[in-house]
């Protein structure tokens, strides 16, 4: 009799342990438990910790409340300016309502993935290529709003959407490279032209200063000779400015020399004959030089008195 009672107690204890093991569920800190009793949502969402359900009657679904990183496969589309591109992105979202995430949608991960792909293709068709390359923050915000609007009813909140990469055709890459090179060439030409303009203004000011002080031009010429000679060249090409010739000509000009006092005939001849200015003589004057010398010699002899018969 005692053995039967002990056996019954042991059997009841084992049944209780099996029932307890089937009824007790552990919900982790980052999870929430949704209980369905005979197919209907029963009570509130179970908090983290130990949750007790009725075995074979209740069914517990655990929903992860962590932020999920969902990569969006690369989508190929045509931009508004008729450029074919491939764009891939990543979506960060989390479940804020565990009951709706289980009841309102069959698979919220798959639903968010499909919505993200559709929204990404729509964004590609509405944007220009320049916006995809340089204005990604605005596109990210628009893409986030497009995905978040239907996801609110699923108990899902979109935390962030980022466009990862934009793939362009090789021909478009070469065209953009040529465009960038041409733009840099244009800016280089503008900078060179501006430098030439500033240099010309400074040179004009220097020319005006040298015009009032001709000695400065001579000093500048000597500096140029020194700079060229420092290179130890065998041939030296030196420009000779016209202004220097004018300066030397003015320096050589002086007051006219007075006529000699002991030669009256020559003085009268010099008075009668006009002086020829300039260092150069004409061919006629050089030919008449011996004749003039003979005439001067005759005029210098003493006069012989005539004898009357």
From TrEMBL:
Residues 22-180 form the Band domain. Belongs to the band 7/mec-2 family. Residues 251-309 are annotated as: Disordered. This is Slipin family protein. The chain crosses the membrane at residues 6-27. The keyword Nuclease does not apply. Coiled coil: none annotated. It comes from the Bacteria. The lineage of its organism: Bacteria, Bacillati, Actinomycetota, Actinomycetes, Kitasatosporales. PANTHER family: AT06885P-RELATED, BAND 7 PROTEIN-RELATED. Keywords: Membrane, Transmembrane, Transmembrane helix. It comes from Streptomyces anandii. InterPro entries: Band-7_stomatin-like (IPR043202), Band_7 (IPR001107), Band_7/SPFH_dom_sf (IPR036013), Stomatin_HflK_fam (IPR001972). Pfam families: Band_7 (PF01145).
């Amino acid at each position: 009799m005692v053995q039967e009672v002990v056996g019954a107690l042991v059997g009841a204890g084992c049944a209780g342990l099996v029932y307890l093991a089937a009824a007790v569920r552990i919900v982790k800190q980052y999870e929430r438990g949704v209980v369905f009793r005979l197919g209907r949502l029963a009570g509130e969402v179970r908090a983290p910790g130990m949750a007790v359900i009725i075995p074979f009657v209740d069914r517990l679904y655990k929903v992860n409340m962590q932020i999920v990183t969902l990569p969006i496969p690369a989508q190929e589309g045509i931009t508004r300016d008729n450029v074919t591109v491939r764009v891939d992105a990543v979506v960060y979202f989390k479940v804020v309502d565990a009951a709706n995430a289980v009841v309102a949608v069959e698979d919220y991960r798959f639903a968010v993935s499909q919505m993200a792909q559709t929204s990404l293709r729509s964004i590609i068709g509405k944007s220009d290529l320049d916006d995809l390359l340089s204005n990604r923050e605005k596109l990210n915000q628009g893409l986030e709003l497009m995905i978040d609007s239907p996801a609110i009813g699923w108990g899902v909140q979109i935390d962030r959407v980022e466009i990862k990469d934009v793939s362009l055709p090789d021909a478009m890459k070469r065209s953009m490279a040529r465009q960038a090179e041409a733009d840099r060439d244009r800016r280089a030409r503008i900078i060179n032209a501006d430098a030439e303009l500033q240099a010309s203004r400074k040179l004009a000011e220097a020319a005006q200063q040298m015009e009032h002080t001709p000695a400065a031009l001579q000093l500048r010429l000597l500096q140029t000779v020194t700079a060229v000679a420092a290179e130890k060249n065998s041939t030296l090409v030196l420009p000779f400015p016209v202004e220097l010739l004018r300066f030397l000509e003015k320096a050589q000009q002086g007051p006219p020399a007075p006529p000699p006092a002991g030669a009256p005939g020559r003085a009268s001849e010099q008075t009668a004959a006009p002086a020829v200015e300039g260092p150069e003589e004409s061919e006629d004057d050089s030919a008449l030089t011996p004749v003039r010398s003979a005439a001067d010699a005759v005029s210098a002899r003493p006069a012989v008195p005539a004898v009357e018969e």
